Amino acid sequence: MARVLIVGAGLTGSLCAALLRSELPQRPLSIALWDKARGAGGRMATSRSPHDPRCTADLGAQYITLRPAYAQKHRSFYEDLLTHGVLKPLTAPVEGMVMEEGSHNFVTPQGISSIVKHYLTESDADVFYDYHVTQIYLRDGKWEVCKKTGSPEQFDIVVLTIPVPQILQLEGDIVNIIKESQKQQLESVSYSSRYALGLFYEAGTWIDVPWAAQYITNNPCIRFISIDNKKRNIESSEVGPSVVVHTSVPFGIAHLEWNKEEVQAIILDHLENIMPGLPKPASIKCQKWRYSQVTKAIPNSPGQMTLHIKPLLVCGGDGFTHSNFDGCIDSAICIVETLKTNL
Ligand SMILES: Cc1cc2nc3c(=O)[nH]c(=O)nc-3n(C[C@H](O)[C@H](O)[C@H](O)COP(=O)(O)OP(=O)(O)OC[C@H]3O[C@@H](n4cnc5c(N)ncnc54)[C@H](O)[C@@H]3O)c2cc1C
User: Which residue has a Cα nearest atom 19 of ligand 1?
Assistant: First the structure.
């Protein structure tokens, strides 16, 4: 049985695993997913309050937008998530949102990471967290993959769905396997950076604003605020509300190497100016997104890049298309097509 390793349990990696399973039902494959984080989601991250795991906040992606250009092409993906209750139409008011005509927005009642979890369940893959890939070697026609802790393991096929700069940080034979022309393309990919704060409140706290989310245009630090449980239409008297704050990209870049506590204090100061009287949260999580959204993808958005054919080593993710749900679907489809033609 061929052993496939997918590195990255974000949207691209989880969907790759699910598509591999559904499109090759007669082919027995052992699929493993490794992620350096403690849970699934990647940039589709949902955080939980340490006081109450039912109080959650989407720190990365906020909602899914179906644009007319993808309405037909990705219809089955949206229908599947709607049928399983993973996606629901966004009905709460979002101030300052610019909508393309014919677009539809969706939220995830269980948090944005529930999309990734849905695909992981469909894939029936073996998922391992706290597995940080550091080196990849070619040994006897197989890939030997090393992680920060624990023994290396061998695989017939490796798929990398981690942000492009993190592909370039991997060590071992992979460094020489990446051709010079590919390296140049990979090095041309760029990402924005920003911070996100998640504020978690106790049950019964009332946040008195007429909107569920708001884009801010006149603040040097804050770009977006969401009353996250209201945005997801899951307000309840038993579970406290949560607030998500995204900084602007210029603020994120200017403070990228700062101490997180200092950055958190600055963001909270600005938040106090925008929302005076906001109650004190029970806990706060500060998340730095060094690789937030792709600002420049691989030229011509190929969806994947084949680094080696026998054995197969492929990379993909939003750096090979664009940074949203549809970009990740396109990449996952391209990766799976490459695997199907080379298996
Ligand atoms: C603040 C923010 C807001 C956004 N808003 C939206 C939105 O509203 N709508 C939308 O559609 N999209 C949005 N996006 C973009 C969207 O989240 C991404 O395009 C998408 O999640 C990328 O998925 P991915 O699987 O390609 O990569 P990732 O989600 O980055 O997954 C890669 C995974 O690889 C793991 N990893 C990295 N290096 C290693 C290693 N060496 N070993 C093991 N594991 C490793 C990481 O832990 C991560 O889990 C937003 C993103 C951010 C950050």
Answer: 323
- Find out whether 165 and 13 touch, Cβ atoms under 8 Å: no
The protein residue with its alpha carbon nearest to ligand 1, atom 16, reads: 324
pTM confidence score: 0.98
| C-beta of 60 in contact with ligand 1 (< 6 A) | yes
Task: Beginning with the edge strand found earlier in the chain, give each strand of the sheet holding 213-215 in spatial order.
Answer: 94-95, 213-215, 222-227, 242-247, 194-200, 283-289
Contact between 321 and 327 under an 8 Å Cβ cutoff? The reply is yes
Q: Whose CA is nearest to atom 13 of ligand 1?
A: 61
Q: Are 44 and 325 in contact (CB under 8 A)?
A: no
Task: Please work out whether the CB of residue 10 comes within 6 Å of at least one atom of ligand 1.
Answer: yes
pLDDT in tens, 272-315: 999 999 999 999 999 999 999 999 999 999 999 999 999 999 99
Domains and CATH numbers, the chain: 1-38+129-189+298-342 (3.50.50.60), 45-112+190-296 (3.90.660.10)
**What pLDDT does residue 205 have?**
96
- The mean pLDDT of 36-45, rounded to a whole number, is 98
Strands (E), 238-339: 242-247, 283-289, 294-296, 304-308, 312-316
User: For residue 8, how far is its CA from the centre of ligand 1 (angstroms)?
Assistant: 9
